[in-house]
Model the fold of this input.
Amino acid sequence: MTTYLSIYIYLSAISLSEVKLSEDIKKSYFFLLFIFMLLFISGRHYVGGDYIAYLHLFNEAKVNVLGGFSKLQGLNYIIQFLHKFNLNYFSFNFLCALVFLAGIFKFLKISNERLFVFILLIPTMIYVVGMGYTRQSVSIGFLCFAIYYWSENMHVKKYIFFILSVFIHISSIIFIFLLFYKSNEKIKLAKLSLLIIFTTSFLFLFYYFYFNNFDNLSSAIGLDYKIVKNSPLKYLKFLAHILPCIVFLIFLKKFIKDKKIYPLYFFFLITTITVIIVMFIFKQLAEESSYIDVIADRVLLPFILIEALIFVKLYSLINLEYKFLFKLLILFYFGLMLFIWLEFADNSHAWQPYRSILLEW
Done:
């Protein structure tokens, strides 16, 4: 726990210090931060929720190529590429972390408060997803590129990275909004709602019929049935998704002024509400309803990116005399979520203690 909290607290202290740095120094700092996080994520040794599962699949794919395809989908091409050069599992984690972090750092360019946004991504996006949901982390990395190029109205690159994202993990198709709307475009609620309802329903139906039951789903993404069924934090994570929705609605008039990103904020609001509603509907219909929560959780994971932007945007709206206190409050809230996950989540033992293969060679 100490390692994870120390990184969070250190970066928070730097953000709170509000030290004025030249652009060259900022670039150097972010480069060093990128390298450190790359080695931190890729160098983990038997750390993370799916480390052992992907280790077995990595080794299996070397012997049984077709078996790897059925289990890993698009990620198998990365594994086969590495096997052709006789590279090891560390190389696999390194390449996955590289794609993931490259996307994250590209996404940060959307905001003027890049470090602040990154810190808010640490508890769930960096630690949980980046170090525990390998395939989806790669997909989110590509998705980050797609979102950035969407914000810049660079359509060809947007299409390419969105397709790559969906190819790696089907849940990213929830962001098909990026293909139908441009940055700065006026949102038509009816059109957007129909698109989101259709996409969300498709994802739930796909997972429901493809995996058919929880045992198949848990074996595919490395879940423990008892953890999902009995976790005391089972619904707390959905409340964490609802809070930024409330913030957005309260300060709606302020967020509308951010015309470049406003469609993304509005898309987040409608999609989050839709996913949670559809989750409860499917829970009533499915025989084994426990894994419906897992599907909803996986679908909503990429929206953590937008949630961080919403909190940072809220910070920018606060009067100058209260900015420090408000930033401290936001950092405390996200730090508290990190502490609760590390201390009380049933699966957090897979992340603790942190061990690095770089220190064991």
